[in-house]
Amino acid sequence: MDLNLINKNALVCGSTQGIGQAAAIQLAQMGANITLVARTETKLKNTLHLLDTSQGQVHDYITADFSHPDQLQQALEAHQAVSYTVYHILLNNTGGPAGGAIQTANISEFRAAFEMHLICNQILVQTVIAGMKESGYGRIINVISTSVKQPLNGLGVSNTIRGAVANWSKTLANELGEFGITVNNVLPGATHTARLESIIENKAIKTGESTTDITEKMQSIIPAKRFAIAEEIANAIAFLASPAAGYINGVNLPVDGGRTKSL
C-alpha cells in the first residue's frame, strides 16, 4: 500500500494544536513538506520544530486569522509570491463555532461561522487547485463533524455550517474528480482536545454537574467507551492524503468510535 508522500507539499490549517497539529506531524512523517497555517506565530514556530525532516522535508508556515478571510487571502498571496509552492494536499481544519441553541443564536454568529469555515475553505481551494490540476494529484480533506450525519444537541450554529461545508465539499468532489483530485470529509467524534475540554467545562458551569460526571456520560454513549485522541483522527486524514486513497472521493468518514447511529 503506497502511503509515501515524499515530494508532496501539504497546506495544513489549524495546525498548532489538536487534530491539525497531529495531522501535520503525521503527514511530515510520511515524507510531505508542510506549510502550517494558524493565527499565532509563536505556536506556529513551536509546531515547526515537531515536524520530521529526516527525509529531506522542508517546512514553513503562514500566519493568518480565519475570522478575517481577507487577511487569509492576503497572507496566502504573499506566501505564494515568494515560494511558488504547488500544493498537493490541503487540510481544511478550523475550530468550531461556540455552542448554544439555534433558536436563540444571533445572526452575526451564522455570518461569522460561514466566513470562518466555508468562505475560508473556498479561498484555500482556489489557491491550490491550479497546481493540483497541473500535477495530476490533489487531496482536499475537510475536518468537519459527525453532525453532518446526526445533528448534535446544543450546537445549532455548528450543525448548520458543518452541513453547508459538507455539501460544498461533495459538489467540489464531483467537479474535480476527473483531474486526479479527491475531496473528502473526516468527521471526528468526541476527541480529547482543548475544544472538548472547553465544551465539558462550559456544560459543568451551566448544569452544576462535575466535569467527571459529564465526561463519563459522554463516554457511555460511545461504543468504544472512550474519547478519541487527536492522532487517531490524524491517521484517517493521512490515509486519505496518500496515493493509496486515490479512488475514495466525495465521502464523509466518521472517526467516532461508533457513536454515530446512522450508516
Short description:
The chain is an alpha/beta fold. It has helices at residues 18-29, 41-48, 69-83, 107-135, 156-176, 194-207, 211-220, 230-241; strands at 9-13, 33-38, 60-63, 89-92, 138-143, 181-188, 252-255.
Account of the protein in words:
- This protein is an alpha/beta fold and 263 residues long.
- The protein folds into two domains: 9-191 and 229-255, 3-Layer(aba) Sandwich (Rossmann fold), CATH 3.40.50.720; 192-227.
- Helices cover 46% and strands 14% of the residues.
- It is built from eight helices and seven strands.
- The protein has helices spanning 18-29, 41-48, 69-83, 107-135, 156-176, 194-207, 211-220, 230-241; strands at residues 9-13, 33-38, 60-63, 89-92, 138-143, 181-188, 252-255.
- Strand 1 (9-13), helix 1 (18-29) and strand 2 (33-38) form a beta-alpha-beta unit.
- Helix 1 (18-29) crosses helix 8 (230-241), helix 3 (69-83) runs parallel beside helix 4 and helix 4 packs parallel to helix 5.
- It is globular, with a radius of gyration of 18 Å.
- The chain starts with 8 loop residues before the first strand and ends in an 8-residue tail after the last strand.
- The mean pLDDT is 96.
